[in-house]
């Protein structure tokens, strides 16, 4: 298989080594979700318009997507436009939707050649027709790809997602298809927009804000959180490697005891039984 390249630059040996080290030293997150934040502040700190920051943010999207595909991360979900983002000035919203449409057009073949599948979650029908058309084309073009699932959250919010899932479930209860007592976590997950995607293992937020901002509220229940001060346009693969390294150092307990504590408790139990 030909080497993966979205950035049209050959991967440096030093980068290959870093990736190999990460793969060797621990488990990679299967699903990484990112709240891309700080484009506006990045642009402002350079005396530029906010749209300049969004454009630079696209380069980070490309670099992070490429690095994830190279390493074998299976799912990458990017919070590209929240339901609340519609409240921004019309000029910025227009610039963002135009940027989305033009980036999709430019990257379509590149995504496809690199075996990356594009998906979306959110209220896509709120976007201008041109944007919807570009999205539909790239989604169709890449639908059989399997190296990496790139999911763009567009006009998305966690509460919207949960509300829609509740409506779907309520309709099925009303029609007698399901008993309310049978509703469990799995059934709720299956009615969310992310039904075909595993929950994120790692959630990254850039620009030093300590909030979830209405992203994947149900799905993030057990995700490891990584927050960096770096603004999104400066968040490139080395920053991603730091986040993955931090993830690998943690022990995910899912509410259970730590492995050390489990061993201690097991020993105590044996002692109790044998004395
Ligand atoms: C947050 O920065 C970023 C966004 C609202 C948009 C993210 C969009 C892109 C990176 C470009 C298009 C994406 C794709 C997938 C092609 P902010 O504007 O909230 O920054 P601030 O908090 O500093 O104001």
UniProtKB/TrEMBL annotation:
One of the Pfam families matching this protein, by short name: Prenyltransf
Gene3D superfamilies reported for this sequence: Decaprenyl diphosphate synthase-like (3.40.1180.10)
One BP annotation, GO: polyprenol biosynthetic process
Required cofactor names: Mg(2+)
Binding site for Mg(2+): 37, 224
GO terms assigned for molecular function: ditrans,polycis-polyprenyl diphosphate synthase [(2E,6E)-farnesyl diphosphate specific] activity; magnesium ion binding
Alphabetical list of SUPFAM superfamilies matching this protein: Undecaprenyl diphosphate synthase (SSF64005)
Sequence positions that bind substrate: 38-42, 50, 54, 82-84, 86, 88, 205, 211-213
Record keywords: Magnesium, Metal-binding, Transferase
InterPro entries, alphabetized: UPP_synth-like, UPP_synth-like_CS, UPP_synth-like_sf
CDD domains to which the protein is assigned, alphabetical: Cis_IPPS
Family according to the record: Belongs to the UPP synthase family.
Subunit organization: Homodimer.
Protein name per its UniProtKB record: Isoprenyl transferase
């Amino acid at each position: 298989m030909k080497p993966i390249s979205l950035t049209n630059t050959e991967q440096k040996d030093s980068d290959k080594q870093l990736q190999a080290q990460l793969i060797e030293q621990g488990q990679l997150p299967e699903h990484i979700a990112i709240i891309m934040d700080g484009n506006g502040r990045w642009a402002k700190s350079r005396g530029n318009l906010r749209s300049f920051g969004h454009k630079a943010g696209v380069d980070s999207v490309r670099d992070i997507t490429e690095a994830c595909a190279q390493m074998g991360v299976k799912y990458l979900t990017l919070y590209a436009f929240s339901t609340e983002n519609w409240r921004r000035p019309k000029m910025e919203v227009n610039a963002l939707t135009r940027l989305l449409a033009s980036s999709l057009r430019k990257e379509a073949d590149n995504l496809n050649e690199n075996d990356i599948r594009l998906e979306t979650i959110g209220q896509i029908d709120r976007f201008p027709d041109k944007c919807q058309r570009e999205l539909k084309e790239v989604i169709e073009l890449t639908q059989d790809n399997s190296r990496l699932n790139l999911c763009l959250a567009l006009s998305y919010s966690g509460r919207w997602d949960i509300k829609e899932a509740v409506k779907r479930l309520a309709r099925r209860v009303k029609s007698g298809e399901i008993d309310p007592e049978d509703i469990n976590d799995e059934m709720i997950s299956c009615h969310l927009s992310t039904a075909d995607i595993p929950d994120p293992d790692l959630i990254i937020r850039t620009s030093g804000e300590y909030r979830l901002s209405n992203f994947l509220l149900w799905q993030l229940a057990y995700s490891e959180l990584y927050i960096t001060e770096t603004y999104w346009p400066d968040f490139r693969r080395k920053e991603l490697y730091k986040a993955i390294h931090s993830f690998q150092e943690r022990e995910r307990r899912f509410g259970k005891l730590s492995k050390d504590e489990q061993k201690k408790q097991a020993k105590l139990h044996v002692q109790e039984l044998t004395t």
